[in-house]
Amino acid sequence: MNDPHSLGFHKRIVRYPAGSYLFRQNDTSQDLFIIQSGLVRIFKTEGNVEIDLDAVGSGMVVGEVASIDGGTRTASGYVLEDTDVIVIPSAEFQRILASVPDYLKKIALILVQRLRSVDEKINRSIEGDRTSHIAAIISLLSYSEHCIPGNAGYEINLKFLENEILDLLNIPLSEIAELLEKLDKQGVIKIEKTKCILNSKSQVDAIAEHLFSAAGDSLVI
Description:
Layout lengths: L12 E4 L4 E3 L8 E15 L2 E8 L4 E2 L1 H6 L6 E13 L1 H9 L3 H23 L6 H11 L5 E3 L4 E4 H12 L3 H13 L3 E3 L3 E4 L2 H14 L7
Antiparallel strand pairs: 1-6, 2-6, 3-4, 3-5, 3-6, 7-8, 8-10, 9-10
């Protein structure tokens, strides 16, 4: 990970005691956090049920989606043990983002906006086959650092993918597994023990493009 000073901001480390929150779901806070030490539980609340998404430690960045697009928090960050983090205020992060090359900034904004758009459209939907939405999320992730070339194709960590789908679609893990298996049988992806393999990005891109077009996606590059 890059030294914070090399990115153009001053290092400010804050200690959060165990039992506190970095942020809560639906908060309007937009600070970015880089964990230096400790452990933070990331979870989403559905009704009265808490769904664990991840547990993150040293070197991990959290809160990036709200920092990039200024939206609300999609999950909560609960401190499991005393944790030191570098806190980057939203205004400071936006200043840094403004210095990033335009094409990279547009890519980041478009990806976040589309993820938000998928989230909103799915939450408004009460019926229909969610397979295309799963494929659309895979398509978006295929252009991120979480998708790497492998011997059999492009690979995404399966647990990470399941957590992203869970966060965006709010559906049970059992349903996620069924939908991924369906895409596997269709030859769109291949599911192995720890990873999801894309034989071709163009297959999931085509499904994603159809979904966004059908939904009247109006994002402008």
